[in-house]
Amino acid sequence: MDYAENSKMMEEEQMEFLYPQGDNRLDKFIRFTKEQQLNSIYVGSIITEIGEEKYLRAKAGENKIEKDKLKQLYQIEIGELTEKVKRLESNRKEREREILTEKRELKENIRIEITDTLTSRYNNTITELNTDVLTLKSRVESLIDNKIEQQNEFHQKIINQKDEMERKLEEQRQKYETKLEEYREKVEIITNVGVSSKKGQEGENWVFNELVRQFKSAQVEDCHTKGHKGDFTVTEGDMKGMFESKNYKRNVPKREIKKFREDIENNADLRYGIMLSLKSGIVNHNDFDLEFWGGKPIVYIVDVKEKPEKIKMAYKCCQMILKNIDCFDVTKEETQLKIKEAVKVMTARQKRLTCKLEDFSNDMKGELNQQWSDFELILNHINLTN
């Protein structure tokens, strides 16, 4: 009879069970369905029947032989299993050693392969980076050279413009100084016309009287109205000379000296010249300075009003030079004078240019330092070091 038939039969008989109250063993059983409860009862009855039968047999000693046989069988099986376990353990250890060996070999192969690959990649990368660095350095150097060349051209252009501007400014300055001096003289003449005219006339009269008094045997001529002949000329024999008198409170300026020289040089009949300042000095000249201009001797005397005898002394000096003119290298003297004056001008100009060059050099050093700082900043941005 199977389980289904038994269940059906039990249902047909309509058996009813009463369970004890408060038994903890029935907690799960109560929650089963009716079918599960019947199955549980059926299975439990079979197990109980079989267990009781074996229990009785064991109690009666009938199962001892079977127990011994089973024990022997189990001991043999346990021995075989133990041997099998030992073999498996030995195989496992051997396999572990093989696996460790394979792992070491595999690790070594992988390490060598990775090392070779990484070394190759690293070398290639280093080569590429070095090439890039050299390219960038070349570009930076080219940029620096181009920038420096552009700066040099620009600064040269600035220098040329600056020199041209300074030249124009110098010309304008000289022009305005000349005009200013002319205006100043005109203003002085306008504001002090009466006094100035009187003083100038008095000075000229005094010089004319002194010339007449000191050169009694010579011809003294007033040349104010003739132009470019000086103030007076003194002719004694074949020696005709020009006398230019200045009655300034300040030193006689360069422009008057220039006009005096031009008058001496442009008048062939004049053999010497004497510039005399009645009350002041003469710019860039000492008392009784001698020079040659246009092949003719020129003497400068100052403060003549205090010592009128200087006029006669200057005249005798010129007379003595003209009598012994062959003993003088006039051309050399005149050339040396012009060279000295040119040297003075060039020295002054050189000092100005030196100051300008120093200022320009300082400016250029500052600009170049700033330029190099900017390039170093660019180098740092592209991870390059000089």
Defining traits:
alpha/beta, Trna Endonuclease, Chain: A, domain 1, six-stranded mixed sheet, 6 strands, 9% strand
Set out the fold topology.
Blueprint: H1 3-13, H2 27-31, H3 34-59, H4 64-191, H5 193-214, E1 219-222, E2 232-236, E3 239-246, H6 254-266, E4 272-277, E5 289-293, E6 296-301, H7 309-323, H8 330-381
Parallel strand pairs: 3-4, 4-6
Antiparallel strand pairs: 1-2, 2-3, 5-6
Helix pairs in contact: 4-5
Largest sheet: 6 strands, mixed
- State the share of residues found in helices, binned by percent: over 70%
By CATH reckoning, the class of the largest domain would read: Alpha Beta
Rg result: 68 Å
Averaging pLDDT over every residue, what do you get? 78
* N-to-C span: 104 Å
Q: Which range does the strand content fall in?
A: 5-15%
Cα shape: rod-shaped
Oligomer type: single chain
Under the CATH scheme, which architecture of the largest domain would be assigned?
Answer: 3-Layer(aba) Sandwich
- The helix/strand order is HHHHHEEEHEEEHH
> Order of strands across the widest beta sheet?
1-2-3-4-6-5
Total number of beta strands: 6
Low-confidence stretches: none
The third-level CATH topology of the largest domain is Trna Endonuclease, Chain: A, domain 1
Number of helices: 8
Number of domains: 4
Structural class of the secondary elements?
A: alpha/beta
